[in-house]
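Homework-ish question, so no full write-ups if that breaks the rules, but can someone show me the predicted structure for this set?
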Amino acid sequence: MQARRLKTAVAIAAVAALAVGAAGCAKSERDGDSGEAKTGGTFIFAGAGDPKNFDPIFNDDGESFRPVRQMFDTLVTHKPGTADLEGGLAETWEHDPDGKVWTFKLRQGVKFHDGTPFNAAAVCFNFDRWYNMKGAAAQSQMIYYMDTFGGFAKNEAEGAGESIYNKCEAKDDGTAVLTLNKYKGAFPGAFALTSLSIASPEALKKYDANTVTQNGDSFSYSAFANEHPVGTGPFTFGGWDKAKNEITLNRNADYYGDKAKVDKVIIKIIKDESTRKQELRAGTVQGIDFPAPADRKALEGEGFQVVNRPAFNILYLGLNQKNPKLKDLRVRQAIAYALNRQQLVQTKGPGGAKVADEFQPDTVLGYAPDVQKYEYNPDKAKQLLKEAGAEGLTLNFYYPPDVTRPYMPNPQEIFTVLANDLQAVGIKVNGVPRPWNGGFKDDVQQFGKHDLHILGWTGDYNDPGNFVGTFFGRAKAEFGDQSMTEMFDAIAKADGTVDDAGKKAAWEQVNRDIAAKWLPAVPLWHAPPAIVVTKDVKGLVASPLTDERFNTVSISK
Amino acid sequence: MLRVIVRRLLQLVVTLIALSALIFIWLRNLPGGPVEALLGERATPERRALLTKALGYDQPILVQYGKFMQRVVTGDFGNSIRTGDPVTDVISRAFPATIELALAAMIIAVGLGVPLGYLAARWRGRSLDNLTIAGTLLGISIPIFFLGYLLKDVFTQNIHWFPPSGRLTTGLDNTNVTGFFVLDGLLTREFDASADALWHLILPAITLATIPLAVIVRITRASVLDVLNEDYVRTAEAKGLRHRTIRGRHILRNALLPVVTTIGLQTGALLSGAVLTEKVYNWGGIGTLITDSISGGRDYPVLQAIILLAALVFVVVNLLVDLSYAFIDPRVRVR
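A: Not a homework solution, just the prediction itself:
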């Protein structure tokens, strides 16, 4: 009996030892593999959420765009590290004096990942595809297309407007001519939108890309969007292992531009912020996005490269003019004077943040250096409140405590500082925390329940219309269903001005008037979001538009 | 016995229907919703209204519930709002991850808990007993979240023994057969992957096992103490039976009944504990799916299916526990 028990114990011990040994052995083998890598190795980047799918036109979020940008190219693109435009799949572009006919001279010898040629016909196929989209896809999912073109060939649902797209013609293989019904200031910047990436017509047809079906509460996408995205980019699609939360991209050996230095990019989805940091520290991922401002110094101290992207965003304090007190310009100005924004930037801003005086970064056309500035002046604030008969004012201040955004890494702290400033001039502040997706966006943007709120924006392309126009181009519940028709008209006029000098002057005047006459919100700061990589990562070019392409990245060992 | 099973199954159906209605109405009355998640930050109010109508959220809640139930009875839980994948796919991907984790935790909890509880009772008042009592108190009171981060901090950041998160080293290939990565590696002879999965499993399993382990130790100890004082044990000892027989047949077998009940109840605790543990370790199971589905924009279809599934598992496990009484305690069979 004793012997049998001993044997059992030995067997258990042996199995345990084997498991531990195997784990150790497995680890050393893996280390050996990467050490002996003859080619470029693998760049592992931690993503913060699931992408929706990989069909560019159906996406509008950063987590989907990150892999999409590695696989697809746009006609026009951004100079690395800036928001300035340069040739992408189109080497040059020009428009007629009306700004309606756009001619693109295309890059020659480019091939899609499936081996089919990129040419003018392919470009027009893509534009026609978007314009002719129907059904569930058209109704709900093409946010950027709608922003840019305004409608479809046949609008099946209310809410879509008339499309400004007219037609696209392939003059020859290397020349695509796009005709619009009217000029729009968003172009050419919008041609660089990741959503408007050019996909392989053959693959779009083969994998039934236009079929989006609604099933119950949701939509399901085609095989193109999920399993066979085909573009011209520096990486091809390797797979999306949903059980392991990994997206694999392989080097495209036939890429026309700078071929990728690494063999493979893996985007590992890790939703918890602190876990992303731990993985970085453990060396299991080589890059993470948007570190918390408080962590930046520590990470730098540990030898990581914390790269600040040039700030291409804005955080503002919204003022809802549905509240009659806030309809009075003097009250809005009093609030602006009451805020010590310099101190806010210094105490709560991420490294490199600076006070904003306008609702667009100074690198964007139309920035006016001479707008009215609201330097911190609590006495003036009190005086203005008195003049307006708004002493003892009480305001409901909405903020989302549960999120971090690139322009707003710490909403709770920002709220606290602003509320203190306002209370110091005699404005009583009721803080109303609401979860981002659980009431904040609805209450603020749809129902306009608030008096004050903090919100912001990261630009999509280099155009004032994408900043100022987005916020104040029309009546919105966010700022009160304003009757500021003067402001809406001025913005529409600036957006519709074709010649560069006139456009610049028009937008500058809009920015001056927003600051002095209209003040629908108070601009707070421009904050550079950071990206962090391990010290052996070389060649990562941080982009103000978070438009990083990983083909320039290499891993030194 | 058959009648008991049938009655319990009927109870199960009623429970599930009531629960489904409750969840459905509750979810739809929460602020925020899937429309925001689908459209992102840049949507205009018109687009929101359009999608709200397209998805039928503008209809009365009873109509919406009716449509939902209509689909559910045909086995169609719809598609995930976030990913567009059928809910059944989403869940069947995540389910094995959670079961693998829960099983590992249960093995630790039962494997350590029963012997420890037994020994503590046998040596009542001695230092092992005191130590065990103190340990279980700590185990029960320590928040899972805190413990998870603590273990991770010590074992992945300070001493690099274990990986910080995930189920497999990034980029390591494995063949997915059952979804249980440790088992899959053994089945497909990818021992490297199997060992790697086991290596990833250890910290989360320990974290998740802590509370059930503490509970099982305490229940076993108390139960063994009760039995030790029973007349039949004393009789057995007086008869001069061998200690081994007394321990196995008389003490442990009788003491196990409440322990088995506890294990059943702890299954529910494991499922809710998994939500936190999986979040800490980026585990990719049902727990992660629940948090993602709530914070990621009210993924109604996934949430509804998960809660129903969790209820189903809970009820079935408890049914099995009740049935297992019969095997452990003959008196139940007689009744």
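Now go work out the reasoning yourself. Hint: The two ends of chain B are 10 Å apart (CA to CA).
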